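Duplicate of #3305? Posting structure anyway:
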């Protein structure tokens, strides 16, 4: 970097770290304004009992909101539903994304058109995805109902029920996210030298052995990164679930984001909702840190 001449005649230069901090300063200030203040205000709210009726007022209750969660069955149920939905969404998104990437890496006619078609689900908003899957999975307009009626059934088939609603949500979420995963994995696949596949053929490796020893190793770090990304996006997902199932039937799909929305904006219990939102934040951070400890650290050391 170019430096400045000091009074002693020497040229002072910024170190790489100082230059990086200088470049990042506007972003850090922006984050303080749009993230730190709302986060701090939400933390303050979690220690308050906020009352709207009879005039707005707040009462400091300390850790009472957090203590209430320990005995709240709906809170524990929402954690279980969130974990189940996230695990299923991540597994499906990564599996579908990997399969699409392998398909797109094969020689084909009009690859640009096919890639555009495969990318389309990522371009659909989560609100639109929720509407589409609500038509496909419900009893009156669902795809399964159309097939059942075609074969002579006289009753509609609905998958938006207590038994299958989480799976429907996970499939819809994975359908939306898998194309993005696929295109980043495809970029990795394009960097694998073709001579490695030639050597695998000389060694008479089976397709499964070739995939495990040649194709998969360069993809592992990308798979780790997108596992973290899809985990975070799935845990904080709200609009898709709100449109498709509304947390139901009953509380079958009441993930933490929906439960926080219901407590905060329907019941107007903002303090308790803020407390639950911090539990969700710690759950997201804890999940990503666990993934890094179990998987990411090993990939970074390769």
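Output from current build:
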């Amino acid at each position: 970097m170019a430096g400045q001449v000091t009074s002693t005649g020497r040229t002072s230069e910024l170190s790489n770290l100082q230059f990086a901090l200088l470049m990042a300063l506007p972003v850090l200030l922006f984050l303080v304004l749009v993230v730190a203040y709302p986060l701090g205000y939400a933390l303050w709210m979690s220690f308050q009992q906020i009352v709207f009726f009879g005039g707005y007022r707040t009462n400091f209750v300390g850790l009472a909101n957090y203590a209430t969660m320990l005995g709240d069955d709906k809170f524990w149920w929402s954690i279980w539903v969130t974990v189940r939905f996230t695990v299923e969404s991540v597994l499906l998104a990564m599996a579908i994304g990997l399969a699409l990437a392998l398909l797109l890496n094969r020689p084909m006619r009009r690859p640009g058109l096919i890639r555009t078609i495969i990318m389309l689900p990522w371009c659909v908003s989560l609100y639109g995805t929720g509407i589409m899957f609500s038509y496909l999975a419900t009893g009156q307009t669902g795809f399964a109902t159309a097939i059942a009626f075609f074969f002579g059934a006289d009753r509609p088939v609905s998958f938006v029920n207590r038994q299958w609603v989480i799976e429907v949500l996970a499939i819809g979420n994975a359908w939306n996210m898998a194309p993005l995963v696929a295109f980043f994995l495809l970029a990795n696949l394009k960097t694998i030298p073709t001579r490695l596949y030639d050597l695998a053929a000389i060694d008479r490796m089976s397709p499964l052995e070739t995939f495990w020893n040649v194709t998969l190793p360069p993809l592992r770090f990308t798979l780790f990164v997108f596992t973290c990304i899809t985990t975070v996006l799935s845990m904080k997902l709200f609009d898709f679930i709100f449109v498709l199932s509304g947390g139901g039937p009953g509380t079958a799909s009441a993930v933490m984001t929906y439960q926080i929305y219901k407590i905060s904006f329907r019941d107007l219990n903002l303090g308790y909702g803020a407390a639950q939102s911090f539990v969700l934040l710690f759950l997201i951070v804890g999940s990503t840190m666990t993934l890094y400890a179990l998987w990411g650290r090993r990939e970074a050391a390769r």
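Confirmed duplicate; merging threads. The longest strand covers residues 48-51. The chain has one domain: 36-275.
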